[in-house]
Amino acid sequence: MKEWFFYALTSIGLVVLVIFFQMGSPYYEQGIASWYGPGFHGKQTSSGEIYDMYGISAAHKTLPFGTIVKVVDLETTKSVVVTINDRGPFIEGRIIDLSKGAAEKLGIVNKGIAKVGLRILEWPPQD
Q: CA end-to-end span of the chain, whole Å?
């Protein structure tokens, strides 16, 4: 009886821990986000896709193409979910370049930049 109780209690504890870490997990990365568009609209991205500045996508220096990322503005808590399809940004201190469409959803088009946190929602399938 004691052994069964111990295993049940341990299992419940592990489930609670997993839920806690999933909900309160730290950001994968924090830093400055910017957006890019006019000079690149209609051109090929590093992934081979044609860039649509009005779409919802982003450029990151190292995340694999196809990674789905939740970008959270750390000041306003607004967020947008983007797919990584390009490389950049190439300005020191910036961690992600958003398409204009994604920047509009985040509300940063006029500011140009924002302090953000990145959460990985889905990694691309392994080949």
A: 48
